[in-house]
Design brief:
There is one protein chain. By secondary structure, the protein is α+β, with helices and mostly antiparallel strands. It folds into two domains: 81 residues, no CATH class; 51 residues, no CATH class. The strands form four sheets. It has a five-stranded antiparallel sheet, with no helix packed on it. A three-stranded antiparallel sheet has the order 4-9-10, with no helix packed on it. It has a two-stranded antiparallel ribbon with strand order 5-8. The protein is elongated.
């Protein structure tokens, strides 16, 4: 078990499970979450409307739909109806940030907490009764 003390003095623990993942426990009374955006419906509507602001790949659309030009005070895609079709997939957590830390998100390495976690990358964050189960992938 690895302990981490945040800036407010809350202690969080990270314990390897039998299947090689990590159980994260501590004070999660005040916490922020992030969920991944779902772009498929918005992109399909954009394409169905004839790609009014130019042809884009799905990946380009994902980047462009939220792009804002502060010089012209306009979004890159001016018709905001497509942005309104972007929703969050609240069945998947991609970031957990308890007040005072530690901030964890999918794709981050766990080596910052202990050398024994070096090379372990967060694949998933799942809420469990004890805290969060961090599914890891080997780097």
């Amino acid at each position: 078990m690895i302990q981490y003390k945040n800036r407010y003095g809350d202690v969080f623990t990270f314990t390897r499970t039998e299947d090689g993942n990590i159980l994260w426990q501590g004070n999660f009374e005040f916490v922020r979450y992030a969920y991944p955006n779902v772009y498929e419906e918005a992109y399909q509507a954009y394409v169905d409307d004839g790609s009014p602001e130019g042809d884009m790949t799905f990946e380009e659309f994902q980047d462009t739909i939220h792009a804002y030009d502060y010089k012209t005070d306009q979004y890159a895609i001016k018709n905001r109806k497509y942005a309104e079709l972007v929703v969050s997939d609240q069945s998947r957590i991609v970031m957990v940030d308890p007040s005072g830390g530690p901030f964890l998100m999918v794709g981050m390495g766990m080596g910052m907490f202990d050398n024994s976690f070096e090379g372990l990358i967060i694949k998933e964050l799942n809420k469990v009764p004890e805290g969060y189960l961090i599914t890891i992938q080997m780097h």
